[in-house]
Amino acid sequence: MVAGLTIGLAPQAGVLGIAATSGSAWIISSSAAHYIRRLRQLNNQWPAASETGMTLAHIGVGVFLVGVGMAGTISSEQHLRMEPGDSFSMAGYEFEFRGSQVINGPNYQADQGDFIVTRDGREIARLRPEKRRYLRGGQVMTEAAIDPGLTRDLYVSLGEPLEQTSSGARAWAVRIYHKPFIRWIWAGALLMMLGGLTAATDPRYRPASRTITETDR
Question: What is the CB neighbour count within 10 angstroms for residue 56?
Fold first, then answer.
């Protein structure tokens, strides 16, 4: 079922993506089913911390697999030359470059781009990446603009400034990224860590205290 859903929604995921989502569904469903079964056996009392931690960690592995499998197979990126008014379509999103302006920060001066992201004609984000030049030391840094989401992150960053157009506006080298399920990688890792910490609180893993007797003195 999950394999068919993956093929239908993301056919470009290929064998790796299908294997990742199918394996993830099996791990998560079997872990959840085991924990529910244990709750019933214990008359709705919580199982031991070690068992709860193990379940959380296994679910984390499943979530992590989705992130790795999908982000590694259906991510998109493009390096472009864009001038004000240009637009580019990627993964169903339309990125329109409105131009750039110079802004002053607390310890830097930056060229700030202005991008409007739409989907099906509806604006969903306004991204403002920056190319910063720090006043002390002259270091140049690129600050990408990110629109995060549960199933995808969108990134836009400014590369190098290019020639001026006939209207006097500046063209830019632009990088656009679409990263699906990238946050599932971090969420899975956090669940695994939480599972380990929960399991470590199980009293059975604590060293038994030894009573000092008169003979020990």
Answer: 21
3-state secondary structure of 175: strand
Average pLDDT over residues 195-202: 91
138 burial type by CB count under 10 A (0-12 exposed, 13-18 middle, 19+ buried): exposed
For 134, list phi and psi in degrees, rounded to 5. -80, 135
Helix axes 14-41, 2-9, angle to 10 degrees: 140
17-to-24, 50, 181, 183 alpha-carbon distances in Å: 10, 31, 12, 16
C-alpha separations of 172 from 43, 154, 156, 181, 206 in Å: 64, 19, 12, 29, 60
Which alpha helices (DSSP H) does 47-147 contain, by range? 49-74
Measure the CA–CA gap between 158 and 104, rounded to whole angstroms: 17
pLDDT digits (tens, 9 = 90+) for 147-165: 999 999 999 999 998 887 7
Average pLDDT for residues 196-203, to the nearest whole number? 89
User: Which tokens sit at 42?
Assistant: 């214990």
Q: What is the pLDDT of residues 63-97, one digit of tens each?
A: 999 999 888 888 899 999 999 999 999 989 999 99
Measured torsion, CA atoms of residues 21, 58, 153, 106, in degrees rounded to the nearest 10: -170
Chain segment 31-71, per-residue pLDDT in tens: 999 999 998 898 878 888 999 999 999 999 999 999 998 88
Backbone angles phi and psi of 179, in degrees to 5: -115, 100
d(CA 188, CA 60): 4
Helix (H, G, I), strand (E, B) or coil at 148: coil
